[in-house]
Design a protein that fits this description.
Length: about 200
Amino acid sequence: MRSASITRTTKETDIQVSVALDGTGSYDVETGIGFFDHMLEQLARHSLIDITVRAAGDTHIDFHHTTEDVGIALGQALRQALGDMAGVTRYADVHLPMDEAMTRCAIDVSGRPFLVWQVDFSRDKIGEFDTELFEEFFRAFAMNAGITLHVANLYGTNCHHIAETCFKAVARALRVAIAHDPRQGARVPSTKGRLGD
């Protein structure tokens, strides 16, 4: 089973993350940020990646450091678990609807990190969570996972639905992109013979 564990400790946060890429989507998430926990649970369930997160951070200041650092650690764990990426499908995309909202996500498990984020929220907060932090999370995640990630909300009015479609869309695309392609066998899906540079 492709799995990894990461510990990240700074003066601002203390984070432990574990992932099992060939899991069932089980999750055990505690960040101290309710809505963020809910989104990470969606990421696990719909990607079928088993995810455990324990995060303690300076949430008395705001949620920025905890959110970003969880993204860093989760991305590092994914990168480590993927290894040399031999045999993965590599590319995937999805359109994810939730009621009135629709979000498109495309992923390249390339080893070359990039984020395109085309998501606007009509409110600054969902509950106590700053909506600008979704971009911070996905940037940290993509850069440390070594994936090219494009997320675009096509339409929607409910900010909760828009946020949830982003996490579910990333999850569903990730589920396909990291899956083993039996026709690839043990080859790396690149004419260069390697991914990551």
